[in-house]
Amino acid sequence: MYDELINQERKGLRCNLLIDYPFLNQLKERGMYTGYGNEKLQIGAVKMFADGALGRRTALLSEPYYDAPGEFGEAMYDQATLYEMVKEVRNHMMPIAMHFQCTFYEGVFHLKGIRLSL
């Protein structure tokens, strides 16, 4: 599809790929980094998930879901693990695209000298 849009139809399509965190080591092994690619297709940030989704009631909340007392959602990682993951990505000099629906993580992103723009 991308080849058809870019090369055959000559559309001005440009793609900035988000790479899922589990593939970070493969990126490093291949010498790829943010900006790797060409003017049409480039690697962007590393995508990370802090929690789940509101529809499945897995988004981490500071108060229970109104229709599910006692349910607060789920964190994908504890704070120490999340810190180490962010540190690894930043040591590779790559930006992070963090997915979070939560209200619970508000203070987490200023952990141990790491500052993330929210």
Automatic annotation (TrEMBL):
Pfam families noted in UniProt: Amidohydro_3
Domain Amidohydrolase: 29-99
InterPro entries according to UniProt: Amidohydro_3
Highest taxon listed in the record's lineage: Bacteria
Annotated Gene3D superfamilies: Metal-dependent hydrolases
Name of this chain's protein: Amidohydrolase 3 domain-containing protein
Organism, scientific name: Peribacillus butanolivorans
